[in-house]
Design brief:
By secondary structure, the protein is of the alpha/beta class. It has two domains: about 120 residues, Aspartate Aminotransferase, domain 1, CATH 3.90.1150.10; about 210 residues, Type I PLP-dependent aspartate aminotransferase-like (Major domain) (Aspartate Aminotransferase, domain 2). The protein has a seven-stranded mixed sheet, sandwiched between helices. A five-stranded mixed sheet has the order 3-13-14-12-11. A two-stranded antiparallel sheet has the order 1-2. About 5% of the residues have low confidence. The protein is built from ten helices and 14 strands. The protein starts with 12 loop residues before the first strand and ends with a helix. A hairpin with a 7-residue loop joins strand 11 and strand 12. Bound molecules: pyridoxal-5'-phosphate. Pyridoxal-5'-phosphate binds next to helix 3.
Amino acid sequence: MPVASDDHGSTDQEPDQAGQRRHVVDHHGLRHHGDSEVGPGLVDLAVNVRQGMPPTWLREILVSSMSEISAYPNAERATRVVAEYHGRDPDEVLLTVGAAEAFTLLARVLATARPVVVHPQFTEPEAALRAVGLVPDRVVLPDPFVLDASLIPGDADLVMIGNPTNPTSVLHPAATIASLARPGRCLVVDEAFADCVPGEPESLASVRLPGLVVVRSLTKTWGLAGLRIGYVIGPPELVAAMREAQPLWAVSTPALAAAEACVSPRAQAEAARWAEEMAGRRQVLADGLGALGAYVVPEARGSFVCVRLPHALRLRTLLRKKGFAVRRADTFPGLGPEWLRVAVRDDETTAAFLAALKEARDDLPA
Ligand SMILES: Cc1ncc(COP(=O)(O)O)c(C=O)c1O
């Protein structure tokens, strides 16, 4: 995949008052995220970050990293450890300021004439492209939102997809995604929620394919959204270009310590146990929603479910009055006002939420 020069060939630029060029960015609501749904006194079912995290042992590692805080961060060791974990070489890995930074760096360095984003999915990949003046084509998968490779235009030179996908919770088969890889195309797979799936059978993080880039996040499972740590795995020349584009010392020393700790055998065993337990709790949530007449996108594999029900936005407002924040899903291309996304929590919280939803539904005017 060629790497871009400074000129992105944007058609979305126009002069501002000072005669300089600036980007005209229309995010189409793409920058609405679950964190803007939560607030004081609300039980958070809107943000897909595991509750009660980080665990004590990880907090202790973060605290002890403070002893090195006066030095500039050095990502070498953490990069090597993360690379080893995925069976990759260090020059195939770049640690980033959360997965979100990876999308920004990719948008900056990729020379793409026909970018395609597969929706519904997390909206930052498209927002990052738009922020540099690129307007991607959207492939909107129909319900039940499973990837059909034949829908991807053959001349797409950049394809971005999530697996498992936020907000649908759908896990695409790795083989179907892999079939999209080809020379001259960059295939970006956002695996921010891969560790929700026991054994990660559909992950491509350890696979080398032409133009394949895997983006991972450590903020969800480990409750590190405020620390900001993720990484990207891909062809060395692309990773090198992203490293060049990344601000110097971008990933802090505590974030580097977290990266190393989160791929340790201890962390992986803990995450695997959690993923198994979470699957059971997700079933309880999905069954409860189904019993209330909601449609839940089948085969959910993430730490959240995607739900369609009549008057969803009004129910969301009523739920807020009852103390529960759920995420509106109408800001995801391909979904409409009848969709919500609900995080999997402990059974007690789920039971209280389902009771509140039933009440809210009964409160709706006939
Ligand atoms: C699918 C997906 N990818 C990436 C991210 C960004 O993660 P990070 O916190 O690592 O930047 C999110 C955050 O919500 C997400 O839902």
